UniProtKB/TrEMBL annotation:
Subunit architecture: Heterodimer of a large and a small subunit.
Main localization (coarse): other
Cofactor: [3Fe-4S] cluster; [4Fe-4S] cluster
Domain NADH:ubiquinone oxidoreductase-like 20kDa subunit: start-end pairs: 83-229
Organism per entry: Campylobacter blaseri
Protein name, UniProt field: Ni/Fe hydrogenase
Lineage, highest ranks first: Bacteria, Pseudomonadati, Campylobacterota, Epsilonproteobacteria, Campylobacterales
Biological process per Gene Ontology, one example term: anaerobic respiration
Length: 385
């Protein structure tokens, strides 16, 4: 589809959303102004968001309009078996960004962490929101979900309704469904072997399409960006094999890592605190899972977009990948050093998001370990001259 056709579709959709009733007396532009963000700051953010979502920078005014209309769509956010870290990372920032302010302003009709009501009142609020906004609300679910004969491990409210049943009821009339964080996307640490509660991802609980936004936690831009995509297009974004949006999970950590040049040059940290660590060398030999992990952490970063784990000196642990707790460990050892067979052992370094699957990387490209060994050998030869 040509961009002019996309723009026409977007404008029609935004006009439809604009005619929906406002849920706040205030407005997002006014809120941003009160927090010290100028219109120029907002448009710069909109330009960056457009590019991040794979749109031309000329779509910036359209993205800005979509953000201004974000309060028209009600959001129901359910908590399952989780640590609430995905919510906390957005809500507890000491220096709010435009992303987090927009998230704060979205009409959260139900969110157990920030709502005042509890018990039967909370249950009543949830039922009321589902009925009132039937077919209009966005459902976001955080946390793994005990299922099957183990559903009783997670019950909600005074009536003891299981978390899985809550998800089934809420997803039935949702306009769009997002699994926020790795626990909801893939089961997370709750689903780690031996998975005593039979924790499952949201996609195993509902038969409706689910957009996975994994990470522990995912960046605020990945959460807000997917809401904006739905506002703009009213459809699912292009997804990879694990139902992750390609615009945010289409590249590996390895592809955009600031230490990639050191990897190619065979310059590796051998132990934490050594000279290589001080010089910012590659962390692959310290267990970095960047070559196997698809996410945009290196571009979006955390803590107000100031840093991310690899920049801070620790390798990626692969938290946005399915079953990472089992498949990516030990976290501080290269996967190819394992004494036992792994689906990642001998994994290639040049797989793409479209090709990746359990075990598929084993037959693509040159092995990461071989590349690392060759690079290190060349480096040593160069040093000996």
């Amino acid at each position: 589809m040509k961009y002019d056709n996309k723009l026409s579709i977007i404008k029609d959709r935004l006009e439809t959303i604009k005619n929906m009733p406002k849920m706040h007396d205030n407005s997002i532009p006014k809120l941003l102004e009160e927090k010290g963000f100028s219109r120029r700051d907002f448009m710069k953010w909109s330009s960056a968001m457009a590019v991040t979502m794979g749109l031309p920078v000329t779509f910036a005014p359209t993205v800005a309009k979509a953000a201004e209309l974000a309060d028209r769509l009600p959001v129901i956010w359910l908590h399952m078996a989780e640590c609430t870290g995905c919510s906390e990372s957005l809500l507890r920032t000491d220096t709010p960004t435009i992303d987090s302010l927009i998230f704060d302003y979205i009409s959260l009709e139900y969110h157990e962490t920030i709502m005042i009501s509890s018990g039967w009142q909370a249950e009543e609020n949830l039922e009321h929101a589902i009925e009132k906004y039937k077919g209009q609300y966005i459902l976001m679910v955080e946390g793994g979900i005990p299922a099957g004969s183990s559903e009783f491990y997670l019950t909600v409210g005074p009536h003891g309704i299981t978390g899985a049943e809550h998800c089934r009821i809420a997803s039935k009339n949702a306009a769009a469904i997002f699994a926020i964080g790795t626990c909801s996307s893939f089961g997370g640490i709750q689903a780690a072997n031996p998975n005593p509660t039979n924790a499952q991802p949201l996609s195993k609980i509902t038969d409706k399409p689910v957009i996975n936004v994994p990470g522990c936690p995912p960046s605020e831009k990945n959460i807000v960006g997917n809401v904006l995509h739905y506002i703009l297009f009213g459809t699912l974004p292009a997804l990879d094999n694990y139902s992750r949006p390609k615009w945010s999970y289409g590249l590996r950590i390895h592809d955009l890592c600031e230490r990639r040049g050191h990897f190619d040059a065979g310059e590796f940290v051998q132990q934490f605190g050594d000279e290589g660590a001080k010089d910012g060398y590659c962390l692959y030999k310290m267990g970095c899972k960047g070559p196997y992990t698809f996410n945009n952490c290196s571009r979006e970063r955390f803590n107000g977009h100031t840093s991310w784990p690899i920049q801070a000196g620790h390798g990626c642990i692969g938290c946005s990948e399915p079953d990472f707790w089992d498949t990516m460990g030990p976290l501080e050892e290269p996967l190819t050093d394992r004494l036992y067979q792994s689906v990642f052992k001998g994994m290639g370094s040049d797989a793409t998001a479209d090709k990746i699957g359990i075990g598929v990387l084993a037959i693509t490209g040159v092995a990461i370990a071989a590349h690392a060994a060759i690079g290190a050998s060349r480096k040593n030869k160069g040093d000996s001259k």
